[in-house]
Write a structure and sequence with these properties.
Layout lengths: L26 E4 L27 E5 L5 E7 L2 E6 L2 E6 L5 E4 L11 E7 L2 E6 L4 E5 L4 E5 L10 E6 L5 E5 L2 E5 L10 E4 L13 E6 L5 E5 L2 E6 L2 E5 L9 H4 L14 H9 L10 E10 L5 E6 L3 E4 L4 E4 L10 E6 L5 E5 L2 E5 L6 E4 L10 E6 L5 E5 L2 E5 L3
Antiparallel strand pairs: 1-2, 2-29, 3-4, 4-5, 5-6, 7-8, 8-9, 9-10, 11-12, 12-13, 13-14, 15-16, 16-17, 17-18, 19-20, 20-21, 21-22, 23-24, 24-25, 25-26, 27-28, 28-29
Length: about 400
Amino acid sequence: MVQLNRKSVVVLALVVLLLVAGAFWLGMRQSSKVSSAAPPNTSTLPAGHPEAAANARFSHFRVGNRNVKAMYADGDQVWIGTSGGVIRYNIGSEDYKLYNVESRSLLSNGVFHLNKLDEQLLVGTYGGGLSIFDIAHNAWKNINIPDGLADQFVYDSKRAPNGDVWIATWSGVNRVAGARFADPKAWTTYNVANTRGGLPNDWVYALDIAADGSLWFATEGGLARLQNGVWTHWQHEQGLGADYEAVKDDIRFNADPAQVSRHHAQQKADQGLGNVKVAFNPNYVVALKVDAQGVVWCGTWGGGLARFDGEQFRNYTTKDGLPSNHVFSLFIGKNQRLWIGTSHGLAHFRAGGNGFEVLRTADGLFADNVFSMSTAQDGSLWVGSFGGVAKLTGL
């Protein structure tokens, strides 16, 4: 029997191209600028949703009342992870299929991560472990703690150049040698205890692998690196995330996990932030990407976007033009452009790195909260937000 850990978080409400068993439908709203042959705009937007800018190029997909935390575009397919399961959507035919607990595919309908290894889809779930879908044989396998998984809450995965797969969980990081998921001896767990604090916190939200082979981890206690067998970490006192005094007047996202969780409250108290009653914890790294130049980008909880070159941090906040200091997702798209999903819009650096271009609902987003992104083979950017998914073209 799998024993569930007692974890609590503020689960952000988001939703996407969603299907609910027995009663689901797909709605699409297209900008009149998509093409002259675009179908009429017959579906309605959610209450309070502004009309799109005249020059917007977008399609909106919405269904039901669920959320999207993950997307993975692969050829003519887009895989969409929602709080109601995984949707397989065919861009050309617009056919779709839902995989969830009811279809005996997953152990939990809450999906937080999607990745593909050869012909296998990896699905990280909220409380149901890691589910693996053999696409060619239409077969599912569920992996959990008895199989070697550190925790049943799975947030990210990456395959290293040597074939090992690394998995981010809420009880540390797993390495699966050679991607041999069925071999118990292939599994290793790294946590605060056995790395002697090299991994600063067991709650790991994201990971990435740099071109030099170093592994980087986003945790609730800072940024960590594993390089040549040596663990190193960085926290706010080394420059990660902006200071509270620099951002306190600009915090508009008020969902503070410390107000509902002793775990998060203790984290703030340990930093001397016990009296800060708003959503601010610069050590709490929610999103992570390493670019082609080896620069590490960290999305923090209220401390803005942190850029780390291996020596020092540079933090970007709303004072630099970032739409919000709460960064929920990071994605490197075509031409190595870094996309920054926040609680109040989507952004990317302007040419030359001077300030940000910002997209919100008036520019085609379905909602301003941006939780997931992926690029399809036609170059379109798919963005998961509260209420639905936007497909953006011409960017």
